[in-house]
Design a protein that fits this description.
By secondary structure, the chain is α+β, with helices and mostly antiparallel strands. It is 41% helix and 13% strand.
Length: 295
Amino acid sequence: MLIRVRNRQRRVNHLARHLGAAMRAQKVRAHVEAEIPRSDLLPGRRVTLSLRWTSLEVLRPSNHPDRSAPELPSLWFLLAEEEHPEPNTEPICWLLVSSRAIETLEEALQSLRWYTYRWRVEQFHFVLKSGCRIEQLQLETAARLEKAISTYSIIAWRLLQITYQARKTPEICCVEILPSLPWEVLHRATHPRQQPLQKPPSLEEAVRWIARLGGFLDRKGDGHPGVKTLWRGWRRLEELAAGYHLALAKATGPPASNDAYGNEQEARRAWPARETCPSFPSGRATRTAGMSQLL
């Protein structure tokens, strides 16, 4: 268990009596630097945190209806406070409680690192609910719903990987991460007045272009695109690429190969890439048809 404590007035077995005061009575054991991800209102920033941790026994509330209820077991608490916060910025102050022991600096850093992953977890569930719309699936059995969630979880994971990989290694070629990306169609859709590219763009450029199809303005001060505009752009690019291949098939005739996408080169450029970038459902009929083979 690792959660953030909101109520700092809980009674504990300490001279300070309350949880918040008891934690501030502990000495600072370490100073660490942490990267705070950006939010909808604030940009990301790097902060210096002071760490305090200890084990405390949480007492039963005085107004508990069951006087014979046993006391809670001792838990480990970690207080992380930002030092020298920027002006007009709410300082970081996290009070975490864990069922795992926090006795060393390594264990404290591990708990702090696990807690910072909550933004990724929230974005993962955001893609599942808003992008894949798993809550709107009308499947009849729990087994089918479990298979659907497993499939859409791969989609959500892939989108998050692309989003953060473009920020970590923006200069690499896009085909290294997205080998089936139709980058020619993508460039044509986002740069209709420019000449076609002779080589694939970088990963950062490709991700920004995809996000532009999903509503990302890509202005100078807009920062990196988020997951929401990225999955919108995937759906739009899928439609454009499908139309491109239909027009190409009409102009050149059906492919000689039995492969649905023609020869090996066209298969590499085909869209959607089922193993890397599955499409998002746009309605009940689409979801049912797209998942018929799985279910």
